[in-house]
Structures are given as C-alpha cells and as structure tokens.
TrEMBL record:
InterPro entries: AstE_AspA_cat
Protein name per the record: Deacylase
Chain ranges of the Succinylglutamate desuccinylase/Aspartoacylase catalytic domain: 52-203
Keywords linked to the UniProt accession: Hydrolase, Metal-binding, Zinc
Residues annotated as transmembrane: none
Length: 346
C-alpha cells in the first residue's frame, strides 16, 4: 500500500530552498522529506536516512551543510529526513517521537500502524523504488560518548560502511523493527550513532562521514585490509521494570530502586571488572532489572551481582549506550553489555 502525501520531495535543492541554517530549513519542512541529489554515475544510488529520532540532529546538520555546499556526489543520493514532526515541536530537536506517537525506529515492519507506521512504510517504498547499493541511518546517542555503528550483519561491506565513521561495530541478531533490518533485503545497511546530540564532535563526524559516503567511488570495500575494528557481538539489553524508579546521584537517597553515579556515561565502551561498583540497588533488589539476550533468554546472574547494596558486574563486561537520561532509561534501556572480549554474555 502506498500512502500518498506522507512525504515531501526536494530534488537537487538550491541554497535558497534550504535556508541559511538547519533550523530555518526545518522550519520550512512540513512533512518527513525525501531529498534526491543527482550524481556523476546516475546508474547507482546510495541512501541515507536521518532524524528518525527527532532529538538527534547531527545527520540533518551534516546534510544541510553538505547540500549548501552544492557537491556533486559520485552516485545519486537519496536522503530520507524522517522525524520532522517531533523535531519541529518547540524546543526544536527535543523530542525523540511525538508525545502520543511510537518510536519510528521500531516501525519498519508490519503492521505499519498509525502515523509512524505510514512514514516507515513510505520510506521503505522509496528505498525499494531507488534500489540503493547501501543504506545508512544516522543517529545520535542520548548522552555523550564515542561514535559507533550497529548492524545485523558483520561482513566486509557492512564493515566498510561503518569504517566511514567509526572503528566500533556492534552486531546484533535482535530484531526490533529498526531501519537497519533492511539489510535483510540484501542491501548493506548500517546504523551510525555519531555521539551525543549536543556534541559538536558528533556534528563534525556526521558531516565528514557524509562527505566520504557521497564522494568515494566505492564505499562497500574496506580501504585498508587492516582496519582495526572492535566488533561487539549480540549485546544483551539491561532494562528497567516499568514501575521501577531510577536516580543519578553520588550516593543513594533511599528513594529510588536503582542509583547510578552522574558520570556513569564515562563507562561507555570501557571494560568494567568484577570488582568495580556500578551503582546502588534499593530494597527490591535486581528483580527490577531484566537482562535480555537476542534469543530472548534472561540470565541476570551472568551480568550483575549485588554486594552490600552495591551493584557489580558478575564478570568482566563491556557496556555501552549507558544513559543518564531517566526517560530513555525507562522507555528504552539502561545499557547494553557484552563480555570484555566482545563476545555475547549469553
Ligand atoms: Zn536514535
């Protein structure tokens, strides 16, 4: 089913159309927007989606800058600017999704219900029509922290795409209805997490990566065979029970089920040894947390343990996407973890 008028279209937009700033451009957008730019080799297309989450602007900032510079890309480029509706709600770029809406990056599978489902379905239809050789989906992380890529396939083409931005690659067999699952259509698809939404380095990386993505004749072969990538496989998601409370504090106040230090984000991608405390657990114990692997098993004993009210890793682990945003911690997940070696915990 196609949904007419779900998307707006801009072909080879001029600087006048774009406005002087990304904010001015966003102001002019009325809907999720498709931008098409003709390349030197019109027989091929590369796609990039961004702003799937309305509070993750690095990809849009990069695209605006790149379009203003009026580059001619190596191949045709198809850009999908997704979360225009939540992004426009003041204060601009503050909402991941509409207050009553669904997370768009969980909607790329049937049934395509509601407004977000219709947007996801229309974006997939654009991808099918354009038949791109690859797809990138550019995001920001909720906190600060280094960039990384996420994929459901770890082959040379996916590694090559990730290497345009970062040397950290997370491979997951978990299927959530994310756009990167488009890889299953035989089109290499990689999610890029550029770093924090308010981090200038993340905006720079999004731009530099886009320049590489649009200008290289070949983005699906690794430039150097010795690319030093850290692959983290099948991380488990540690989630908080819906009724549990979380606080970020240097010591527990006794009012929350779990307390994490405010600088917990510094643990992102580092190895945490079994002797290093992560935070504090309340009277309800670890039962307020779940650790879910890609095969939907649950085995908290292999991830965390409690000693004198403090939380420790049950073995040396590597954690990432630790958030200090209590809304994300409650609605999405607290953090992801693998063994220190990068192998799955279970
Ligand atoms: Zn995101």
């Amino acid at each position: 089913m196609s949904h007419p008028n779900v998307l707006d279209y801009l072909d080879n937009p001029s600087p006048r159309t774009l406005g002087r700033s990304p904010l001015e451009w966003l102001d002019r957008m009325q809907k999720p927007t498709v931008v098409r730019v003709a390349g030197r080799d019109p027989s091929r297309t590369r796609a990039m989606a961004t702003l799937l989450h309305g509070n993750e602007p690095s990809g849009l900032f990069a695209l605006h800058r790149w379009l203003l510079e009026q580059h001619t890309p190596e191949v045709n480029m198809l850009f999908l600017i997704a979360g225009v509706y939540p992004a426009k709600i003041p204060p601009t770029f503050s909402l991941r999704q509409l207050p009553s809406g669904r997370d768009l990056n969980r909607c790329f599978k049937e049934p395509f219900d509601g407004e977000e489902g219709a947007i996801a379905e229309a974006m997939l239809a654009e991808l099918h029509r354009a038949n791109p050789e690859c797809v990138l989906d550019v995001h920001n992380t909720s906190g600060t922290g280094p960039a990384f890529a996420v994929t459901i396939t770890n082959d040379a083409a996916h590694q090559a795409l990730a290497s345009l931005y970062t040397d950290r690659l997370i491979m997951t067999d978990l299927r959530l209805g994310a756009l990167m699952e488009y890889s299953e259509q035989e089109v290499p698809t990689v999610t890029i997490e550029c770093g924090g939404a308010h981090d200038d380095h993340a905006h720079e990386l999004a731009y530099d990566g886009l320049v590489r993505y649009a200008s290289r004749p070949d983005v699906l072969s690794l430039e150097k065979a010795d690319w030093d990538v850290a692959v983290l496989r099948n991380p488990i998601r540690v989630e908080l029970a819906p009724d549990a409370t979380i606080e970020y504090s240097l010591e527990p106040t006794g009012r929350a089920d779990i307390t994490l230090p405010p600088d917990i984000e510094h643990r992102n991608f580092g190895v945490i040894s079994p002797g290093e405390p992560l935070g504090w657990i309340g009277k309800r114990g670890l039962g307020i947390l779940t650790a879910i692997g890609h095969n939907q098993t649950e085995n908290m004993e292999k991830v965390l343990r409690v000693e004198d009210g403090q939380i420790y890793p049950a073995q040396a682990i590597r954690t990432f996407m630790i958030t200090t945003n209590p809304v994300i911690a409650k609605s999405d997940c607290l953090f992801y973890a693998v063994k220190a070696t990068g192998e799955p915990i279970f």
